[in-house]
Amino acid sequence: MGEQIREMVLADYDAVVALWKSTPGVDIRPVTDGKEGIERLLARNPGLSVVAVNDRELVGCALASHDGRRGFLQHVVVAPASRGQGLARAMIDRCIERLREHHLGWVHLDVVVDNEAAMAFWEKAGWHRVDTLTRLSRAL
Ligand SMILES: CC(C)(COP(=O)(O)OP(=O)(O)OC[C@H]1O[C@@H](n2cnc3c(N)ncnc32)[C@H](O)[C@@H]1OP(=O)(O)O)[C@@H](O)C(=O)NCCC(=O)NCCS
Questions:
Q1: Is the CB of 68 under 6 A from ligand 1?
Q2: Residue 89 falls within a domain, yes or no?
Q3: Domain span at residue 19?
Q4: Which residues pair with 77 in a beta bridge?
């Protein structure tokens, strides 16, 4: 595998957004996924988010963060041509390793309900659905 996993830095932003935009099902939020929003995320969570790069381009990313109690993974994406090589697993393993250093109880992520391929991926990787909770949200 010629790809390398490394910490995401703000200079990766344009390539990361291009990857999100080219991936069906990735919901790009105007505030939190804008450049300033990602800058805040990276500043508040140093060393947690990662990208996968080869010698030509950025081919994967995973945003990781925590609030002091729970960890979160978001926008885990690998470019189609680079899938099936263990890149997502390698990015997630690294995120989890770093999240563990923060003494958190759990790490959570959201999967859009009809994204069956993503559910199959997460369940194969040992994640489980939480049937006892319903997520409630409101805009700020
Ligand atoms: C889901 C995604 C990130 C997987 O990336 P990837 O780099 O191909 O995954 P990996 O190669 O690391 O796969 C790790 C394992 O999961 C398995 N796997 C990968 N995709 C799978 C799928 N859709 N269904 C079932 N298993 C899957 C692999 O076979 C591999 O198993 P193994 O370790 O036994 O060989 C990628 O398909 C993607 O970007 N999808 C679109 C974006 C998306 O839906 N992201 C999730 C948002 S919640």
A1: no
A2: yes
A3: 4-124
A4: 61
Q: What is the pLDDT of residues 79-109, one digit of tens each?
A: 999 999 999 999 999 999 999 999 999 999 9
Return d(Cα 7, Cα 47) in angstroms, integer. Answer: 6
Which CATH number goes with the domain that contains 25?
Answer: 3.40.630.30
Instruction: Specify if 131 maps to a domain.
Output: no
Per-residue model confidence as pLDDT tens digits over 50-60: 999 999 899 99
Q: What string of DSSP letters covers 64-100? A: EEE-SSEEEEEEEEE-GGGTTSSHHHHHHHHHHHHHH
Protein residue whose Cα sits closest to atom 4 of ligand 1 = 88
In a domain, 133, yes or no: no
**What pLDDT score does 25 carry?**
83
- Is the pTM above the cut of 0.85? yes
